[in-house]
Design a protein that fits this description.
Elements: H1 3-26, H2 32-76, H3 80-99
Helix pairs in contact: 1-2, 2-3
Length: about 110
């Protein structure tokens, strides 16, 4: 199953919980605390799927960048270290974007 479909299912589930849970709380089937916890859990699942989707896009983008740089390496004086550093910098920026946080630590690529 594709990530987009999984995200639709989880989004639908969140919507259904927002409709059903108030009624369930009112009839004492669940507590408000449990309803909030369960809804929050599904919202976190959706965030995780969003991050995974962004990481898949990043992998495709980095693959393209890598092959573009390898292709021009000999023609424009790019050394393997230049390519490695460029990729590392781009990965660090993308990870910061995906995580929603500032750059906290650099990615350690193998030598």
């Amino acid at each position: 199953m594709q990530l987009k479909e999984q995200k639709k299912i989880v989004s639908r589930e969140i919507g259904m919980r927002k409709i059903a849970y108030p009624k369930w709380v009112e009839s004492a089937k669940i507590t408000q605390e449990d309803a909030d916890y369960q809804t929050h859990g599904m919202q976190e699942v959706l965030k995780s799927l969003d991050r995974l989707e962004a990481l898949e896009e990043l992998a495709l983008e980095l693959n393209t960048i890598f092959w573009e740089k390898v292709h021009i390496e000999g023609k424009e004086g790019y050394s393997p270290e230049d390519i490695r550093q460029d990729l590392k910098d781009q990965i660090d920026r993308k990870i910061s974007e995906i995580s929603g946080r500032g750059k906290q630590e650099s990615l350690n690529l193998p030598e």
